[in-house]
Design goal:
The complex is a heterotrimer of chains A (645), B (393) and C (271). Chain A is 76% helix and 1% strand. Chain C contains 10 helices and 12 strands. Classes of the chains: A mainly alpha (645), B mainly alpha (393), C alpha/beta (271). Chains in contact: A-B, A-C, B-C.
């Protein structure tokens, strides 16, 4: 060691000693630095708490606001009308079945004629479309003032004729028409011109043919047709009465709301007046506030008018039930095709329940009390168990989140169902079988999926996957799959597939970690016992890593439920509980989701309205679900961990 | 293929049922794994095939500069009587119509499909800058605490639990949070507090009012910062942990304080790793749509953030006035709503038709967006491999 | 600390925004904002020079929330302002001023291959309310009806409810779409689809107009069509300066030409 280094040592010691002595406001700087980092570390906790606070702050008022709304709903008599109106809707379902039944019964007789007519119409439109440009030119020339020279018109006419002739040649004529008919029709299509206002004679003939067939078919099933019509018209009188009452109730509700709004307005104006400095402005605001007084609405009188008509309603209901049952009794049993018979059975089966509902409604009218308060429990129930999410309605808004929840859950299940096997298989393969080179391919690719923004996947869902699934579902030898051919290209299955793709990276990497964590000793022991690779993997490694895999699946589920853009763009946005009676084909129905509804509707509601608050309530539910899923994933991981130990 | 080579191998077992099953299972597993890879490749290929022609050109400068340097605008499609179609912007439309004269037949316009996507790119860049600076500051500080200071105990467990849960919060809930917290309640200095102000603290010359920043880059950036915070914390902590314990011990043995140790012996070695992993955070922040929907994004804006109309200064304006105005211009960038790429893609996907004219804008934007994100991801993965080789302790 | 600096910057910036006033922020209806107003804005910009527009079209309701919040100069709406919205604006001491700019016809559209081309008013109501569930009930080829409607903030959604459905609710089988274009896209890809759009979109590919009680929308006879309605621009207070210039432009002959081209009916054409 050099002697010139020696004087340094005391300096360093001095430095340290001085450092220890230096304080800021009596605190040790090291201590301060530590607290600084500690404070930053607690950001995560603080943010979680803040999220909760802000969600609750905007959302919690939903309960009182909605309670007030439901109170008005009751006091203005809307609920009274709904007592009858709701069960009456069931009539439409039955009526719809009967209408379908009629057309199914007529189908075998009129099918040919109808298809021929429709095909002819379609061909005509196609032919017109193909020659549209020439036709338009001629039309313009004909309309022009003064009319152009005859030779110009002739040239245009000739253009159109050639185009129409070419178009009529190029069309594909279905086998519904005989060769002669095709030739005839082709000639007529080629002769189409804007001056001919009548339909081509061939189409006229086909229409007439269809009309005769239809008439004949209706005569054959005259009983069915009349019974259906009678059933259809049965509630007309009742409807009229209910509509009248509804209008009255709605008027009452609007006047209540108006006077409420005016009162609020008055308050706000007065507050504004208090804060303004400008005396003129102040005076005008106060004046306006004075003017903003609504009439006191006497709801009890209004609703009394409604309840006074209970007897009338009950008679009408009884009359309706009687005529509906009579119509149903006159329905024939033989309706030709099995399809029609099934529909008829459906309608007949549904009728007793409907009649029962209507009778109950009639009695419920009597026990309905306008002054019964709306309990908080009912408001909570209406949100958590309500099956209707109706907003911006001209009758009454309802915020029931069951349809949204079912949509979210079904989509998430589809996604997990698809993603789990794939990602676990990929994890097992990469972890146990893959060569290093394969690993270098598979791992970065899967990691890359994580970086693909969800909105891009949503776009792919709209522009590519939807059409692919739809085309695929129309392949004839795949018709045994339930739900095929599908109608909507935007549906839960489409969204589920894309979400599965998004969930793969999470599930894959966590499962792979789980497999990696299996102690080496297990594998060695299994090998030593002479197990094959496959046996080791499936009897030793996978069971040992199962807790990790399960928690990976759960975390994947959490990710999928919380995903927004894909479901917003791809799920089809239909706010209704999926029709589970369709069996597994239910996955091809559209749905709306918890996340989607927030993204779709929040931008358009005014702050503080019940709709706004309801959306924040949905946010609270989502937040709770995400915490729960996380907690479950940890619990699963721990539980199996302790068992293994 | 495989079984043949097995036969050729004298040491291989005979082709019993077990072996066959073994091979079959292996192939099944392989097929499953490659399914993911192939799906990814197919999607990427689809976007590449449709999007690359929009962005690249076959002649110099090989890139469609118009698409990358113009703001989105309407596309005009003009048809003449012979059925020829001309695609053009607003200024070209009149010229073409005049030229066609009698021959003009119809014109239709398609929103957002003309011009380019400079506005959204700039907006996303701004959002990313704000969010990553906030998240890096908070995240690295948190990671330092977790890795260097924290002792086992309730507090540490609570923080870890919170980070885990924060990572699982749905992005749309972050959007709601950002709306409630930054757009509607964050503190600002104003002369007259707005009605919605939660709390107004008079400070004499001005008032500190909790009335929110409105929808702007700042609100969006802060919201995104909390979305990516868990990613940054976890990554930074891993990088700090990777610095060998010996470095710290050596430093402490030399008499350095804890802070000096961290500052001179830990952070310098961890920084490259932290920055690398934060690139993944950037990719995530750039790609999120739901959090910025209500906090920052705008469907259409015909100006770049810094092109703001300020009153013209008098000719004899002082240097100070000019300086003040450029400061205003700069700050204005962060206090206005912007277009952002992910939200732009949402608009393009949901609000305009899918046809041959809109496809250009749709696939072009998606392609550019993916290229940006993919470039970030690749850089991050590549740098990580590179760093792993460099810092092998 | 960080927050105070940020807050400080915000103050400076907000005073700056108050000074500058040549950006017109327009919010509201998708029916107006997707095609017509951008086209008007573009033409106006060409004519008047240094103005810039900032347009977002998420539905008519957003026009009034934005006007009330002072985040828009002009609101577009395909329906008249509701009483509670007027009150909301008034409570922020903003008097809304209503300007009728054009008429629109809500057009019921179906897939172009659908044989059904005329419906009665009652059938339209029953289809959208979910009472009629199958095309065979109204003489079409058998198949369940897919109903596409606008989303709830849309003025068209509300107008259609009032004009075509006697105020009844949409059926629960209806799907809510973000804009007219999305409805067109879905109906044109689904042979069993039905929906409604603004007249401007009626000529789109793959769909056809369904006439109601035999009357098809026709710009020459707007008032005869059952689903015709006026559309509005709203401003806070009497328009002044650039806002006034823009609105005058919209109602000028040059504006009329653009309105007609965008598929609306201008006021002069109504007379």
């Amino acid at each position: 060691m050099d002697s010139s280094d020696l004087p340094r040592r005391p300096e360093l010691r001095n430095l340290i000693i001085r450092n220890r002595k230096r304080t800021i406001l009596g605190f040790d700087p090291q201590q301060i630095i530590k607290y600084f980092f500690g404070a930053n570390a607690s950001t995560a906790v603080i943010v979680l708490v803040l999220i909760m606070i802000f969600l609750v702050r905007e959302g919690v008022d939903f309960l009182p606001t909605n309670r007030h709304e439901l109170q008005t709903y009751r006091q203005a008599g809307l609920e009274f009308c709904d007592l009858v109106d709701r069960p009456l809707r069931e009539h439409q379902t039955l009526s719809s079945s009967l209408r379908q039944c009629v057309s199914a019964a007529l189908e075998p007789i009129v099918k040919d004629a109808r298809e021929r007519r429709n095909a002819a119409f379609l061909l005509k439109t196609q032919a017109e479309e193909k020659a549209a440009r020439q036709r338009e030119a001629l039309e313009n020339a004909l309309e022009r003032e003064p009319p152009p020279a005859e030779d110009q018109l002739a040239a245009l006419r000739k253009d159109l004729q050639t185009a129409a002739a070419a178009a009529s040649q190029a069309l594909i004529y279905p086998s519904l028409f005989t060769a002669e008919e095709t030739a005839l029709f082709k000639a007529q299509l080629a002769a189409l011109s804007p001056e001919l206002t009548d339909l081509p004679p061939f189409i006229q003939a086909l229409s007439a043919e269809f009309m005769t067939q239809d008439r004949a078919a209706r005569e054959k099933y005259a009983d069915l047709v009349t019974a259906q019509e009678e059933f259809d018209e049965a509630p007309d009188d009742l409807h009229e009465l209910v509509d009248e009452l509804k209008e009255q109730a709605l008027g009452a509700k609007q006047s209540v709301e108006e006077s409420h709004a005016l009162a609020v307005n008055r308050q706000q104006l007065l507050e504004a007046a208090e804060t303004t400095a400008d005396p003129d402005e102040k005076a005008s605001l106060i004046k306006e506030a004075e003017a903003s007084v609504g009439e006191e609405v006497d709801l009890t009188a209004l609703t009394k008018e409604l309840t006074a008509r209970t007897g009338e309603l009950q008679t009408q209901i009884a009359a309706y039930v009687e005529s509906a049952e009579k119509a149903a009794a006159s329905l024939p049993d033989d309706v030709g095709t099995p399809d029609a018979a099934a529909l008829l059975q459906k309608a007949k089966k549904g009728l007793p329940a409907h009649v029962q509902d209507m009778r109950e409604a009639a009695t419920a009218l009597e026990s309905w009390r306008v002054d019964k308060p709306v309990s908080m429990l009912r408001v909570i129930g209406a949100f958590f168990f309500g099956t209707e999410w109706i907003t911006n309605s001209s009758w009454q808004d309802f915020f029931g989140f069951v349809p949204l929840l079912t949509g979210s859950v079904v989509i998430a299940l589809i996604a997990v169902f698809i993603a789990t096997p794939i990602s676990v298989i990929a994890a097992i393969y990469t972890n146990q079988f893959a060569t290093d080179r394969e690993k270098e391919l598979i791992k970065p690719v899967i990691e890359f999926i994580q970086a693909i923004p969800s909105v891009v996947l949503g776009f792919i869902g709209i522009s590519l996957v939807g059409d692919l699934i739809k085309e695929f579902s129309e392949v004839s030898w795949l018709q045994w799959i339930p739900g095929f051919p599908i109608q909507e290209r935007l549906n839960m299955f489409n969204a589920g597939c894309l979400l599965a793709f998004m969930a793969v990276p999470t599930m894959f990497s966590l499962s792979e970690d789980a497999l990696n964590n299996v102690p080496r000793g297990y594998i060695d022991a299994s090998d030593a016992l002479g197990a094959t690779k496959l046996q080791t993997v499936f009897r030793v490694i996978v069971p040992a890593g199962i807790s990790g895999i399960l928690s990976a699946v759960l975390l994947g589920l959490g990710r999928v439920i919380g995903e927004t853009m894909v479901v917003l763009l791809v799920a089809g946005n239909r706010i209704a509980i999926p029709d589970f009676s369709a069996g597994p084909g239910v996955v091809f129905q559209p749905a709306h989701t918890l996340t989607g509804i927030i993204a779709q509707e929040l931008g358009e509601v005014s702050r503080g309205s019940s709709h706004w608050q309801a959306l924040f309530m949905v946010g609270i539910v989502l937040f709770t679900i995400s915490l729960l899923v996380n907690w479950c994933a940890r619990a699963v991981a721990r539980r199996f961990e302790s068992q293994k130990a | 293929m495989k079984s043949k080579t097995d036969h050729a191998n004298p040491f291989a077992g005979d082709s019993t049922g077990i072996q066959k099953r073994e091979t079959a299972a292996r192939w099944a597993l392989r097929a499953g794994s490659y399914l993911v890879v192939l799906t990814t490749a197919a999607i990427m290929l689809h976007i590449f095939v449709k999007g690359a022609p929009v962005v690249f050109r076959s002649e110099w400068p090989f890139v469609n500069t118009q698409f990358l340097t113009e703001l989105p605008s309407q596309l005009h499609v003009i048809e003449d009587k012979q059925g020829r179609r001309y695609e053009t912007g607003v200024n070209g439309a009149d010229a073409i119509k005049k030229e066609l004269g009698e021959n003009y037949r119809s014109e239709k316009t398609i929103a957002y499909s003309g011009g380019g996507i400079l506005g959204p790119i700039v907006g996303t860049a701004l959002l990313v800058i704000v969010s990553v600076s906030v998240a890096l500051f908070l995240g690295v500080a948190c990671a330092i605490y977790l890795s260097e200071y924290a002792k086992h105990g309730k507090f540490l467990e609570l923080i870890r639990l919170a980070i885990l849960n924060l990572a699982g919060v749905p992005s749309v809930v972050f959007g709601l949070f950002g709306l409630g917290a930054f757009v509607l309640t964050a503190p600002v200095f104003v002369d007259v507090p707005a009605d919605r102000s939660v709390l107004a603290i008079p400070l004499g010359f001005t008032t500190l009012s909790f009335e929110g920043w409105d929808t702007c880059v700042l609100s969006g950036g802060f919201t995104l910062a909390f979305v990516i915070l868990p990613v940054i914390i976890t990554a930074s902590e891993q990088c700090l942990q990777a610095v060998p314990q010996g470095f710290r011990e050596t430093s402490m043995a030399l008499g350095a304080t804890r802070w000096q140790t961290i500052r001179y012996s830990v952070l310098p070695f961890a920084t490259p790793g932290i920055l690398t992993s934060s690139i993944l955070g950037i990719a995530r922040a750039a790609g999120e749509t739901a959090p910025i929907m209500f906090t920052a994004a705008l469907a259409f804006k015909d100006k770049l953030p810094w092109q703001k109309d300020l009153p013209p200064l008098p000719a004899d304006a002082s240097v100070f006035a000019q300086w003040e105005q450029s400061l205003q211009r700069f700050l204005g960038i962060f206090t206005e709503s912007v277009q952002a790429l992910p939200y732009h893609i949402y608009t393009l996907a949901a609000k305009i038709p899918q046809n041959e004219y809109s496809e250009r804008a749709q696939y072009g934007s998606v392609f550019v967006f993916l290229v940006l994100v993919a470039a970030l991801a690749t850089v991050s993965i590549w740098m990580r491999i590179h760093l792993r080789k460099k810092y092998r302790w | 600390m960080k927050h105070t600096i940020l807050a400080l910057t915000l103050v400076i910036a907000s005073t700056a925004t108050a000074l500058a006033q040549s950006t017109l922020r327009i919010r509201g209806s998708d029916t107006l904002g997707a095609k017509l107003v951008p086209a008007l804005a573009e033409a106006f910009k060409k004519q008047a020079g240094k103005v810039s527009f900032d347009i977002a079209a998420e539905g008519s309701s957003t026009a009034f929330t934005n006007l009330a919040a002072g985040t828009a100069e002009i609101g577009m709406s395909s329906r008249k302002i509701k009483a509670d919205e007027r009150t909301l604006c008034r409570s922020k001491s903003i008097t809304v001023n209503e300007i009728e700019i054009a008429w629109d016809m809500i057009t019921v559209v179906a897939h172009k291959n659908n044989p059904v081309s005329d419906l009665t008013k009652k059938q339209v109501m029953q289809i959208f309310a979910g009472d009629i569930k199958d095309w065979s009930e109204i003489g079409g080829a058998p198949g369940p009806i897919s109903v596409y409607t606008r989303n709830t903030s849309s003025g068209t959604y509300k107008d259609f409810m009032g004009m075509a459905m006697k105020g009844r609710e949409y059926g629960s089988n209806s799907q809510k779409m973000a804009g007219n274009e999305q409805i067109v896209a879905e109906v044109s890809s689904n042979t069993n689809g039905i929906g409604y759009v603004g007249y401007a979109y009626a000529g789109s590919k793959g769909i056809k107009v369904v006439s109601i009680d035999g009357s098809a929308p026709n710009p020459a006879a707007v008032k005869k069509y059952v689903l015709a309605r006026p559309t509005f621009l709203y401003t806070s207070g009497e328009p002044t300066g650039t806002i006034k210039e823009f609105i005058d432009f919209c109602r000028s002959p040059a504006g009329d030409a653009i309105i007609a081209k965008a598929g609306f009916v201008s006021l002069s054409q109504m007379k």
